[in-house]
UniProtKB/TrEMBL annotation:
Entry-linked Gene3D superfamilies: NAD(P)-binding Rossmann-like Domain
Keyword annotations: NAD, Oxidoreductase
CDD domains (UniProt xref): SDR_e
Name this protein carries in UniProt: NAD-dependent dehydratase
GO MF terms, alphabetically ordered: oxidoreductase activity
Domain of life from the UniProt record: Bacteria
Keyword Oxidoreductase: yes
One of the Pfam families matching this protein, by short name: Epimerase
Family statement drawn from the similarity comment of this UniProt entry: Belongs to the NAD(P)-dependent epimerase/dehydratase family.
Record-annotated NAD-dependent epimerase/dehydratase domain positions: 6-165
InterPro entries, alphabetized: Epimerase_deHydtase (IPR001509), NAD(P)-bd_dom_sf (IPR036291)
């Protein structure tokens, strides 16, 4: 049976805020969790991922979890360890104890961020490409994917790990023309990840059907995901404002963009 009650961690964040609007029309009842209060949602659970008692309470009775909570940019190693490595472990332990069957894990393109940028539109980067994390942040996302794999093989908890590109209402850079995930397509992809049968542990890239796509969307499509958006209408204005990607610019040479520069930067 399709999941109905879904725990959404990271509900106060940028993506959580978009998904709180876009997922209920698919029929989900969302339970919300974040360390920050969720505006206008008095029933949201305000707690840290380190609070195992609160997490246990949060997963009780849910059919699935969408795990967005965590540090979403580069940070100090200790901070990343606490939120993204220990945090994801606490989440899976709570899910295991409560018998939750399915998790959708917000992984990131930065798990493979040092992969050289392929030709626009080639869709060349396979989901099985070796991990090349570009930051401690990207490294923690690879850890989350491997933890998901372990909990599938050992405990039978299914996960779809979604290596999200850039999910914003509009693409904000020339790089994002290739990896943009429109919010509506994000909701479509999360719905597919929650409802597809027998996913075991599946890794997918998360983007819209962009003309300039860099990666292979076939594992996402195999879940039933049928993206409806394309960043191309934004291309002319972004290229006029920012110029084409320059292979000599270290912030343009890899999939992860300026996360790959030294020190990493994450402005658009
Ligand atoms: P965000 O930073 O806006 O939201 C993350 C939320 O997690 C925040 O509300 C924060 O309070 C909460 N959080 C952080 N550490 C926590 C902890 N220890 N305990 C409880 N709550 C905690 O990030 P955004 O953009 O909404 O991303 C959501 C998820 O998707 C993140 O895991 C991020 O790494 C991933 N992602 C997002 C992309 C995007 O384009 N928005 C791209 C790739 C991955
Ligand atoms: C991410 O993983 C970040 O969470 C998000 O804020 C964006 O910077 C995105 O990647 C990106 O690569 O554009």
């Amino acid at each position: 049976t399709a999941p109905r009650t879904v725990l959404l961690t990271g509900a106060a964040g940028g993506l959580g805020t978009l998904m709180r609007e876009l997922l209920p029309p698919y029929g989900y009842r969302l339970r919300l969790f974040d360390r920050r209060p969720v505006e206008g949602e008095p029933d949201a659970i305000t707690a840290e991922l380190a609070d195992t008692r609160a997490l246990r309470e949060a997963v009780r009775g849910v059919d699935a979890v969408i795990h967005l909570a965590g540090i979403s940019l580069e940070a100090g190693f200790e901070e990343i360890v606490r939120a993204n490595i220990e945090g994801v472990h606490h989440l899976y332990e709570a899910a295991r104890e409560a018998g939750v069957r399915r998790v959708v894990f917000a992984s990131s393109n930065h798990a493979v961020g040092f992969t050289p940028r392929p030709a626009d539109g080639s869709g060349a980067i396979p989901v099985g490409a070796p991990r090349r994390p570009d930051t401690y942040y990207g490294l923690s996302k690879g850890f989350g994917e491997d933890l998901a794999s372990l909990y599938w093989d050992r405990h039978g908890i299914e996960t779809v790990s979604v290596r999200i590109g850039s999910c914003l209402p509009e693409p904000a850079s020339v790089r994002m023309l290739s990896i943009w995930l429109s919010p509506a397509d994000c909701a479509r992809l999360l719905h597919a990840a929650l409802t597809a049968p027998d996913v075991g542990h599946t890794v997918v890239y998360g983007s819209s059907a962009n003309t300039r796509l860099w990666w292979d969307l076939s594992s996402a499509r195999a879940l039933g995901y049928d993206p409806q958006d394309d960043s191309e209408p934004y291309a002319e204005a972004l290229l006029a404002a920012q110029g084409a990607l320059d292979p000599a610019n270290p912030g343009h040479a890899h999939l992860g963009g300026t996360f790959c520069t030294d020190p990493p930067r994450w402005q658009h």
